Amino acid sequence: MPPAPAPRLRVDVSGLPRYVPGRVAPSDLVDKLSSNENPYPPLPSVLTSMREELGRVNRYPDAKSGELVRELSEALGVPPEHLVPGTGSLGVARDLLYAAAGEGDEVLFAWRSFEAYPLLVWATGATPVQIPLREERHDLEAMADAVTDRTRMIVVCNPNNPTGTAVRRDELERFLDRVPGDVLVVLDEAYREFVDDTDVPDGVELYRDRPNVAVLRTFSKAYGLARLRVGYAVAHPPVAAALRACTIAFSVSGLAQAAARASLHASDELLERVRTLVTERARVTRALRASGWTVPDSQANFVWLRLGARSRAFTDACEAAGVMVRPFGDEGVRITIGTPEENDRLLKIAGDWRA
Ligand SMILES: *Cc1c(COP(=O)(O)O)cnc(C)c1O
């Protein structure tokens, strides 16, 4: 018999680039500063809510995440119809892309930026258009210049992963004024809670009178729920409705809904931890600069070292000393801000390495 033909697929998936996730830590003794996670464990109140939820896993969760939406709506001061929760902000980003773009369309984003973007865009059949960063920052002028009549979506990662840099209110407003109203601009604010520069705008304020702006937020980073997969979009009703139509039913588990709600209730306590990390970010940045490193100003929970061809060697040196960091090819290394002790160990390695 002749071999059966291979199934015909929509895109040549085998040719797509892959997402390279941070490696799983080989043991708890390693400092994992490679995935921008929150180093602090869940609060007791969050664990209690999750425990109560465990006995109900035989039932489907609330498909609309109604209580979570209601509480987010109050916390953010936006109507519930403008909120769409999903499987992490990555899941929401993917669904938004499916809602907005397909074969023949273009999706613009900066590069280097979050490495999931090109993969998510390819999977929809649309064409990713990458606009190089300028001095580690979004080049919003060049991004606006690159808009064509095929552009359906522009993603602005603010602050940018992996460089940590943030775009300011003036430049972002100027950019939004230039982008045609029929192009959706998505502000990915996965690290919003770590921003302490008052010139960096809050996307939820910017979206209010701009129907073509949507904002992505997540519970993974500041709220420390990375493993549970829950994030959300804030968008005007036509966009939010299209996004809902592209979302898989029950995409936010009951455990994730319970933990996200408990985290909102405990936001004072959790944001106190965020302040500690922001203080540590300043300390780590100062110490690295003092030992000769060039470090862009970061508004996120990580810092970026443009090590070029030495990225791998530095990553290996860190790993040999029990610290996992994240190299990006021959460009640089991203280091997550951890606990003060973890940061001290990183600073020791970085200080010695340069010397
Ligand atoms: C971590 C990260 C996300 C993904 O967050 P999840 O909510 O865990 O899916 C989205 N965007 C950026 C820029 C990130 O760094």
UniProtKB/TrEMBL annotation:
Its cofactor is pyridoxal 5'-phosphate. It holds the Pfam family Aminotran_1_2. It is an enzyme of class 2 (transferase). It catalyses: an aromatic L-alpha-amino acid + 2-oxoglutarate = an aromatic oxo-acid + L-glutamate. The modification N6-(pyridoxal phosphate)lysine is found at K221. Residues 32-348 form the Aminotransferase class I/classII large domain. Its EC number is 2.6.1.57. GO terms for molecular function: aromatic-amino-acid transaminase activity; pyridoxal phosphate binding. Keywords: Aminotransferase, Pyridoxal phosphate, Transferase. The keyword Cytoplasm does not apply. PANTHER family: HISTIDINOL-PHOSPHATE AMINOTRANSFERASE, HISTIDINOL-PHOSPHATE AMINOTRANSFERASE 2. Homodimer. Aminotransferase that catalyzes the conversion of aromatic amino acids and 2-oxoglutarate into corresponding aromatic oxo acids and L-glutamate. Belongs to the class-II pyridoxal-phosphate-dependent aminotransferase family. This is Aromatic amino acid aminotransferase. The gene is hisC.
